[in-house]
């Protein structure tokens, strides 16, 4: 984190959540006993799509409303399979709230 307040903290949390989703998808395939192949595919797909949307919204898009929507959708999609962990839903709520706050704030004036 570079010390630029909410924007830097939100960026770090988005990238950390994206990495957590990707690692959870990989670990889930090997360690979780799913009832069916459909459950395994849905678990993996939601986590990987969520991780991809978070990373794309943060790294590939210009800050703004569209980026905020992509980040929020990615956070919620990836958080669905991990809702039972209690920590992930809190992180998702923080990412969504912070991203919306930053998007509504608009571009910061040049110093």
Quick synopsis:
This protein has 111 residues and is mainly α. The protein contains four helices and no strands.
Q: How does this model look, in words?
A:
There is one protein chain. This protein has 111 residues and is an all-alpha fold. It has one domain. It is built from 4 helices and no strands. It has helices spanning 6-31, 37-60, 65-79, 87-105. Helix 1 runs antiparallel to helix 2, helix 1 (6-31) runs parallel beside helix 3 (65-79) and helix 2 runs antiparallel to helix 3 (65-79). The longest helix is centred in the N-terminal third of the chain and has 26 residues, at 6-31. It is elongated.
Classify the secondary structure makeup into a structural class: mainly alpha
How would a textbook summarize the main sheet?
A: none
Share of β-strand residues: under 5%
How many angstroms separate the termini?
20 Å
Helix content: over 70%
How many beta-strand segments? 0
Round the mean pLDDT to the nearest integer and report it.
90
Rg calc: 15 Å
Q: Can you write the helix and strand succession as a string?
A: HHHH
What's the number of structural domains? 1
Overall form: elongated
The number of distinct helices, counting runs of at least 4 residues, comes to 4
Low-confidence stretches: none
């Amino acid at each position: 984190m570079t010390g630029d307040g909410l924007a830097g903290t939100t960026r770090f949390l988005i990238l950390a959540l994206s990495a957590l989703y990707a690692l959870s998808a990989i670990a889930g395939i090997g360690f979780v006993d799913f009832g069916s192949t459909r459950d395994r595919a849905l678990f993996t797909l939601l986590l990987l799509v969520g991780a991809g949307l978070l990373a794309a919204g943060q790294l590939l898009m210009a800050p703004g409303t569209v980026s905020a929507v992509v980040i929020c959708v990615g956070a919620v999609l990836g958080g669905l399979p991990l809702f039972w962990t209690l920590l992930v839903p809190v992180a998702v709520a923080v990412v969504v709230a912070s991203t919306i706050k930053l998007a509504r704030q608009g571009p910061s004036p040049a110093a």
